Amino acid sequence: MQSPLQVARYAYIPKLPPVLKQPIEHVVARLGEATESESDQAGIRELFPHTYGKPIAEFIEGSNPNVGTRRTVGVVLSGGQAPGGHNVIAGLFDGLKAANQDSTLLGFLGGPSGITDDSVREITADYLAEFRNTGGFDVIGSGRTKIETDEQFEAVAQTCKTRGIDAIVVIGGDDSNTNAAVLAEYFLARGMKTQVIGVPKTIDGDLKNAYIETSFGFDTATKTYAELIGNIARDANSAKKYWHFIKLMGRSASHIALECALQTRPNICLVSEEVAERKQTLDSIVTEICAVVAKRAENGENFGVALVPEGLIEFIPEMGTLIAEINDVLAAAADEFAGLKDAEHQIEFMSGKLSTDSVRVFDSLPKGIQAQLLMDRDPHGNVQVSRIETEKLLTEMVAEKLEEMKKRGTFKGKFSALNHFFGYEGRCAFPSNFDSDYCYALGYTAFVLIANGVTGYLASVRNLARPAERWTAGGIPITMMMNLEQRHGKKKPVIRKALVELDAPPFKAFAAERKTWAVKTSFSFPGAIQYFGPDEVCNQPTITLKLEQQG
Ligand code: FBP
Fold first, then answer.
1. Which contiguous run of DSSP H or E holds residue 1?
2. Taking the CB of the first residue and of the last residue of the chain, which one, N or C, has fewer CB atoms within 10 A?
3. How far is Cα 183 from Cα 1, in angstroms, rounded to an integer?
4. Whose CA is nearest to atom 7 of ligand 1?
5. For each of the chain's 551 residues, which pLDDT tens digit applies?
């Protein structure tokens, strides 16, 4: 059954930047100067001899004689869901069909493995109609398979040859778009015509730079979490008896937690990047939280809201070292570890392999957290932070310390904590108007880049803090965003992840207020995302984006 909102959203017509509103044959890519990578220029140039140094493409009015070529384009959704993915595909489809009705869009099913396994479905107008302006990735599904072995690359090439694929659009985050650049280079090196264009996706908001102002999905996900946090804050302020510890997604960077803090003004918001910068220990974080709880208790307020970014655990230096050591042991002794009977034996095995410092840290953790740290890594070798109950760890440690403080007479209040984790709730929400428009524009841009013959580019729509009538569009060579990083003992080219910058306007705006928010209840209640109504309630970008664009 289709919900009333779903039906109403089918009728929504996403806004396009002015340059994309004209007939598609009149949009051309103006190419600028040659570019360089973020850093490690010589190394990246050597790895990408065919695609390195390409110019930035900016769309302008002109005449593109090649636009109407009949094409077969493949599209893949890669990694975690993010609101707006369906609109990227809608924008791509509409651009492709506007150029030539006989062109075909093929969707690879279940993520990148759909390309290697040649698992596809044709995306038709009828099929797509039910997905426009809706959340989710269920139109073709997604997956986290990483294309890295020679066999996988050969399988991709085979699929493209068999199906006569002219271009692949990769909708993904930093790792997937790094993969897109590698694929573009691979095709050119083999004299293949298949172009590769990336689209910046991730609710985490950490795929951004001077040219990619935000990744899609961040807007809707943070607004969804902020609504829930606001509701919880109001509940806390009504009942005045619970401290709510809320873990928020964001595998590495704390952009989500920070944006939600700016929207809701909680009493505490931890920012992993600051914890790393200050080289804080778990104990010092707990001590600081206890100080806030105690201060509020003195004012008779035995309640509050604390936001915890899910990536926190890896940013606490001692925990980061521990996780790195565990990763090494798991990689080196994979079979032996897999053969162990249960979590108890795994914990014992691990304790025997760690350095003295890390054993001390590991042994100090509750059994549940120890077991969670040993769970399977994702295909990129990352610990799955969404499955580690950091919020629970913190509330347990805070409760313990407050008990000690009570005995010493330095805490006289009550501490009753509830834990929450918001992540999956926001990844498939109906995209906000911002994400509906932005994603549609990104998909349309991806097609215009294809029609202009470039490869190894990321679609870029800019000026996003302004209304869509002021947006611009074009493409950025992916190699420009790369640097070399140590991964599994080897230097690898990767798109640099954008972490929260402590000297940038969003963090500074938060830091300027947090002491007040800690002690004086100052909650703000954003309410649910609005799709219909005045501009100031339904067409605003995130506070992060506004502050960054002002700065
Ligand atoms: P992407 O970077 O692939 O967009 O995914 C981000 C994310 O939502 C993280 O916030 C979270 O840690 C992770 O995915 C969860 O992964 P999974 O969906 O595999 O449980």
1. none
2. N
3. 40
4. 80
5. 999 999 999 999 999 999 999 999 999 999 999 999 989 999 999 999 999 999 999 999 999 999 999 999 999 999 999 999 999 999 999 999 999 999 999 999 999 999 999 999 999 999 999 999 999 999 999 999 999 999 999 999 999 999 999 999 999 999 999 999 999 999 999 999 999 999 999 999 999 998 999 999 999 999 999 999 999 999 999 999 999 999 999 999 999 999 999 999 999 999 999 999 999 999 999 999 999 999 999 999 999 999 999 999 999 999 999 998 998 888 888 888 888 888 889 999 999 999 999 999 999 888 888 988 988 777 767 788 888 899 999 999 999 999 999 999 999 999 999 999 999 999 999 999 999 999 999 999 999 999 999 999 999 999 999 999 999 999 999 999 999 987 766 788 999 999 999 999 999 999 999 999 999 999 999 999 999 999 999 999 999 999 999 86
Residue 492's DSSP bridge partners are 485
| Cα–Cα distance, 545 to 23 (Å, whole number) | 30
Question: Which of 171, 386, 494 gets mutated to test ligand 1 (max ligand atoms within 8 A of its CB)?
Answer: 386
Report the run of H or E that residue 306 belongs to, with start and end.
strand 304-309
Distance, in Å, from the CA atom of 445 to the CA atom of 169, rounded to the nearest integer, reads: 11
Of how many residues is the chain composed? 551
150 catalytic, yes or no? Answer: no
- CB of residue 94 inside a 6 A radius of ligand 1: no
Domains of the chain: 4-59+67-217+431-495 (3.40.50.450), 218-427+504-548 (3.40.50.460)
State pTM to two decimals: 0.95
Which position among 94, 174, 175, 204 bears the catalytic label?
A: 204
Q: Indicate the top mutation candidate among 204, 372, 389, 435 to test ligand 1's pocket, ranked by most ligand atoms within 8 A of CB.
A: 204
Name every residue whose Cβ is closer than 8 Å to that of residue 30 and which is 6 or more positions away in sequence. Answer: 57, 58, 59, 60, 62
Is residue 312 within 6 Å of ligand 1 at its C-beta? no
